[in-house]
Protein 1
Amino acid sequence: MTKPGSILITGTSSGLGEALAAWALDHGYRVLGTSRRGNPRLAEHGAYSEVLGDLGVEQSATETIERLTKDTTDLEMAVLNAGILSRFGDLVDTELEDLERTMRINVFANQTVLRTLARAGRMPARVVAISSGAAVNGRRGWGGYALSKAALNMLIQLWARECPGSHFCALAPGLIDTAMQDVLCGLPGDERYDSLEFLRSARHTSDMPDPTAAAERLGPLLFELERHCESGGYVDVRGMA
């Protein structure tokens, strides 16, 4: 039986990134993790390697990925999970500074990660970018977050054309009860934003699992995405059979 290789996961300090890293470690993979804050709990595991860095800064992102992968010869997958939620509200009230910051973290940082891997000849066989239903449904209020995830989907499609030897997928993981939900569900009710009420009603139900439960479902699916989409495609876990 082939020994599991290494998986690169960004944004492992908390939430889904932390949970996916823990799942991978539990299943025998070596995990290369990065975040700004670090994760002491994961660091206790002998198969977890971590380099702290700000992926929103090009030089920091490049150096972080180079250091994290320089001695790796068995990189099987990269999970581009790190991201931020933009200010929620109408675009008419949104400053360009907020849009630029969101695009920098959710799109350009991932471009830097992929470019660094490609230039080093370390592009793995599978690349999964954590996208969102917000990328395609155009719900009012999601502004910069929706724009950034739509751009991320196209980034993945373009990289798939350049790297036919790897399978790329933009994956919407469904509703997950993370710190992002603390922010969204804590916003005041507003009839303009019906999606907020939907999130509140889903919270604390099976429709919005915690990160650990979500990772238990998503972990195996990461290795089966070729069955669900062509390289460069977008897929929502809620529509997968």
Protein 2
Amino acid sequence: MMADLPRIAVIGTGGTISSLGAGSLDVLDYPEFGQKLTSEALLDRFPETRQVAEPVPITFRQVGSTAIGPKDWLELRELIHRTAGEDPGLAGFVVPHGTATLEETAFFLNLTLGVRQPVV
């Protein structure tokens, strides 16, 4: 019998990782195209994730990472705390994020989160 897979909350913020260009070779203007995938749609593009975990998609924002700042960090921290409290069976959190403010978001969460689950 196969062991249960760990349940991982995937909290989407938008950014480069969730951006779709006008075509498969659109590697320059994709931010202006404006299409951002939800957490669920992003996971659907990588079905292999379901071989190692049971992802729980949560869409937080669908914006470019240059638009994420202190107000968003506070709301993201609250969302993680609330989700961890409401669903203590979660094994961890993954926060797909654009590259422009990734380190600021990670630093803020590292300093302020108080949940037992790892946050990546």
Protein 3
Amino acid sequence: MKKLKVKKIQKETKKELLNYATKVNKSKAFLLDSFLLLMPIMYIVFYLFMGSREEFGANKIYGWLEILIPLVLIQTFLFFKLGQTPGYKAYNLYLIDEHTKQKPSFGIILFRNICVVLSFFSIFGWIMMFFRKDYKTLHDLLSNTAVIQK
């Protein structure tokens, strides 16, 4: 019985050692990534692929797919290779797998980034971080990842 209590305390201690990123730093990193990654992609789609903003307005679903697919792929590549995006790097944030405490696998990162897009449309997924002690969003919970600050 005593061994079980010791193991339980050790597990709780390991969880507490993680320095979860704050909601402020995660929000700042998101805004920075929006300008550094999203804006160039939007410009390319608006003016090179579609020809104009008016053409984008006429074909919104197709236009948003042309924006979101490259964004998800670029972010997935950056998280897989470096463990962080430019916004995360600016605030010293890293994406980790909750189980291994290491950089997540490519599949987990891709799943997380697809869930990011879905969370964005529901807004609920993003608002969750303001009510949780570990500041996790819905896509972090679904993919069992965490954003930590080193």
